[in-house]
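Lab manual, section 2.4: Encoding a predicted structure.

Procedure: take the sequence of the chain (165 residues), apply the prediction step described in section 2.3, and record the output as structure tokens. A sample record is shown.
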Amino acid sequence: MGKPLSFKVSESSTALRSMIRKESNSKNILRLQSLLHIQEKTFKKQSELASHLGYNVRSMELWLKVYKEQGIEAMLIGSKPRKAKKRKISIEVHRGLSDKLNDSFKGFESYVSAVEWVKENYGVSYPYSTLRDYIIDVFGTKIKQPRKSHIKKNPEAQADFLKLT
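Recorded output:
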């Protein structure tokens, strides 16, 4: 047996409809539609409304709990200002990494060598995963290693082959 929808929505149906039209976030639209269906008493049980919207009953209960306690602004996603993610890498280290990575002759052989280079030159020890993720995200690097060459390869034959192509 599902829980009946005994819930009071303070906004009017027309106000909810205009908010739905103005909203661009699809999750917020579903949340506003849930309030609209509750206001218009379209469904008798929470489970019916949740299945109509394509969400779990528990998710909808959490939205409605936030709505009851804090109002419609708190229920909507994106109304809270998000804090910017702070990078752990300092500006000096960033500049040094940029110069080193953009130099085609003196680059890094591996991410481990990058960690060691930062530790030697700047005296700062970053975890491997932190520095690796930073280098990949910011600079878009891919550490590449050449294929092994055959021991018996003749350099003269290679030169002749390159001349033909």
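Check your result against the sample. The chain has a mean pLDDT of 85.
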